[in-house]
Design goal:
Layout (H helix, E strand, L loop, with lengths): L1 E7 L3 H4 L8 H19 L3 E6 L7 E7 L2 E6 L11 E6 L3 H10 L7 E6 L8 H24 L1
Length: 149
């Protein structure tokens, strides 16, 4: 089963221009995080993941119904817990996903939320077949784009 591990790094996610603090402590944190990611890759667990820039560099689109939306530019001051990054992992169980999250080199006060990912099969065979077709189409488009660059 696929899970997403969502990292909430605390207030520094909004104040830092670079998520790694300067100096040796920050360098060690970066090295530890890269080593953690590599262990998950080597185990065949990590499918993807990235850090996210501060909310001041983003926007929220709020849906109001009837096809109407409003856009709010960041920062999102009402947000107390800001998402700072994520991993997509493949694990046999929630317990296995928790075991991986417990190994993440996060400083005190940070936390990781783990949630299972909906799969097309959860919505039935027809939805799964449609998604397989879309994934094949996206892979072909990505390969074509890569060949051109």
């Amino acid at each position: 089963m696929r899970y997403v591990m969502l990292m909430y790094p605390g207030p520094q996610a909004e104040t830092e221009t670079n998520p790694v603090p300067p100096g040796p402590e920050g360098q060690k944190l970066l090295e530890d995080m890269m080593a953690f990611n590599q262990r998950m890759v080597d185990a065949g667990t990590m499918l993807g993941g990235e850090g996210l820039k501060p909310t001041r560099m983003g926007a929220r689109v709020k849906y109001q119904g009837g096809g109407k939306t409003t856009v709010h530019d960041g920062p999102f001051t009402e947000t107390k817990e800001v998402l700072g990054g994520y991993w997509i992992i493949e694990c046999a169980s929630l317990e296995e996903a928790v075991a991986w999250a417990r190994q993440a080199p996060c400083p005190a006060g940070e936390f990781i939320e783990i949630r299972p990912v909906w799969t097309p099969e959860d919505f039935g065979a027809e939805a799964a077949e449609i998604e397989r077709g879309q994934m094949e189409q996206m892979a072909a488009q990505a390969a074509e784009k890569a060949a051109k660059s």
